[in-house]
């Protein structure tokens, strides 16, 4: 699947609520700041842990996000080739933050950030 064939959506076009969001960034990036309610599976672990996506709603696509959109594009391509309905989130968490979407982090008292 070429990059042009990967379904992609801008953060501003995502629904505000109820999105099945998969964050494929590394643990330190996730801990620094992530979207509330997102599922976290680092990209390198996705093939071994793909079964964890079974608990996501099956009536909508899985929206895949990373820091800037590169890793999530590769993960979305792999998921689509594996029978999932996956959409890359263009611009990643950088765009998420720029659009003013909510973020949470794993460090109490520290403002969530995008690494």
UniProtKB/TrEMBL annotation:
Record-linked SUPFAM superfamilies: Rhodanese/Cell cycle control phosphatase (SSF52821)
Region of interest: Disordered: 96-115
What's the superkingdom here?
Answer: Bacteria
* Pfam annotation, one family: Rhodanese
Q: Which InterPro entries match?
A: GlpE_sulfurtransferase, Rhodanese-like_dom, Rhodanese-like_dom_sf
Instruction: Indicate the segments forming the Rhodanese domain, all copies.
Output: 15-105
Give the protein's recorded name: Rhodanese domain-containing protein
Species assigned in the record: Amycolatopsis japonica
């Amino acid at each position: 699947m070429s990059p042009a064939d990967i379904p992609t959506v801008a953060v501003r076009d995502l629904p505000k609520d109820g999105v099945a969001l998969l964050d494929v960034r590394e643990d330190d990036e996730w801990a620094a700041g992530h979207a509330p309610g997102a599922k976290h599976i680092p990209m390198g672990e996705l093939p071994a842990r793909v079964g964890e996506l079974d608990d996501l709603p099956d009536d909508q696509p899985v929206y895949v996000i990373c820091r800037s959109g590169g890793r999530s594009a590769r993960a979305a391509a792999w998921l689509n080739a594996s029978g999932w309905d996956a959409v890359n989130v263009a611009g990643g968490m950088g765009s998420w933050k720029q659009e003013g979407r909510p973020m949470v982090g794993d460090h109490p008292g520290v403002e969530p950030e995008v690494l």
